[in-house]
Amino acid sequence: xxxxxxxxxxxxxxxxxxxxxxxxxxxxxxxxxxxxxxxxxxxxxxxxxxxxxxxxxxxxxxxxxxxxxxxxxxxxxxxxxxxxxxxxxxxxxxxxxxxxxxxxxxxxxxxxxxxxxxxxxxxxxxxxxxxxxxxxxxxxxxxxxxxxxxxxxxxxxxxxxxxxxxxxxxxxxxxxxxxxxxxxxxxxxxxxxxxxxxxxxxxxxxxxxxxxxxxxxxxxxxxxxxxxxxxxxxxxxxxxxxxxxxxxxxxxxxxxxxxxxxxxxxxxxxxxxxxxxxxxxxxxxxxxxxxxxxxxxxxxxxxxxxxxxxxxxx
Length: 314
What we know:
Elements: E1 2-8, H1 9-19, H2 32-48, E2 52-56, H3 64-68, H4 84-96, E3 100-102, H5 109-123, E4 127-132, E5 146-153, E6 157-161, H6 163-170, H7 177-184, H8 199-209, H9 212-217, H10 224-232, H11 234-244, H12 266-276, H13 279-310
Parallel strand pairs: 1-2, 1-4, 2-3, 4-5
Antiparallel strand pairs: 5-6
């Protein structure tokens, strides 16, 4: 089965920035987020060995969710001043390395990841999409063809979510994450759900009634005090569901052949790591190149042996 890695660029950069102590290059440029991003990037390439790779980034302009709800993400802190130039450095390095980047005004990276996941699987049923992000909202996209790798400690320890792992950890089916957020809201994105309903109550309701809409169809069966809370906040809960739903129809088109991992320009990546003084990453990258060369020679030998056998030379 072919594998497509889709990385949530800003989420991984933010995690790297906060997980690592300040690092600087020879010219004094702060590089901890850059180093952490590419350290995780190389780990994913080495562990998963994907056939294709893409990175999705947020854009600074307001998204369609801001038009739905003016308070959306209103309380998010301003991005750290020394992180902004690091994002630019990473984007430039990725472009120089011929790694596909997707970003669109009006949409979050989550929406691009959702759209890519849907398009990729629709185009090839034998393709497995593996999302890399610390954003649990993306768990709503997990299914038989879509998995998610999420960092849990620093930038090295990660957990792989498939449908069963999501159910085990959150007592929810992946698609129920949207309905769950409709009930509990999301403080980080600054939108409310149903006042007085917490994670356990929300999960219990969804386990019994399956969907947000079905809960409201059965308000008469629900204890009066809980039903009253649901009825009073029905409108804002419906809005919360819309805000929580990841779009899968963003105006982008993925061409799998353009995202092939063997098209990554490792020479330019090597030059970038040299410039930044990332000696440990250089060692890992060079090791990966050597492994690839050995594997390629082995493949060529097998192919040559097979061809000779077909020609009657063996």
